[in-house]
Amino acid sequence: MNDTTYTAAELDELDRIARQIDIDAPAERVWDLIARPGWYINDGVVEDEPDLHYEGDVSVVRHPSLGEFRFRTVQLDKPRYAAFRWIGTPWRDGATPSTLVEFWIDEREGGGVTLRVVESGFASLADDPAAWLKEREGNDKGWLAELEAAKAFVESAPVPTTRP
Question: Which of 23, 32, 121, 137 is deepest in the core (most CB within 10 A)?
Fold first, then answer.
């Protein structure tokens, strides 16, 4: 995305990333993952026990080599929708603009779910489109990997047993 000129309409479209993946698991199991702030801060494998703590209403996820990531929960509507705002990363402090990450869980006919993610607000990150487009590009690739990691994590989770 270097030295490319975009129209205003193209920049508006690039302000968001939308991805989805089909997961062969019930909505409740997928919900248990997506309702956890910052589950997508990892090295391609979702952690069972992430380094997650809370400072008031801020969730802090610590990655062993990248540092701390901060989130504020915007909305949780179990078991269908969760939204979080990035409010700080190792590269951006909490006082600067941030993106919104939203997840939807849609049940599929015949079983399983489709997990959708939309991250929006990239244009607010910098006045220069080249700067925010670079950040967006990394996240665009990242969401592909994170949705695959979510699928692997949820599908490998043990199925709860019920007793008669």
Answer: 23
Q: Specify the pTM.
A: 0.87
User: CA neighbours within 13 Å on the CB side: how many for 77?
Assistant: 10
Q: Count CB-CB contacts under 10 A for residue 144.
A: 12
The whole domain housing 34 covers 14-156
Residue 164 lies in a domain: no
Is residue 119 one of the residues assigned to a domain?
A: yes
Assign residue 64 the CATH number of its domain. 3.30.530.20
The predicted pLDDT at position 17 comes to 95
Count CB atoms within 10 A of the CB of residue 100: 16
Does 6 map to a domain? no
Residues 6 or more apart whose Cβ sits within 8 Å of residue 56: none
Chain CA centroid to CA 64, Å? 19
pLDDT, one tens digit per residue, over 20-78 is: 999 999 999 999 999 999 999 998 899 988 999 999 999 999 999 888 999 999 999 99
**Is 157 in a helix, a strand, or coil?**
coil
The DSSP secondary-structure symbol of 49 reads S
Q: How many domains does the chain have?
A: 1
CA distance 73 to 20: 21
Using CA atoms, how far apart are residues 155 and 73, in angstroms rounded to an integer? Answer: 25
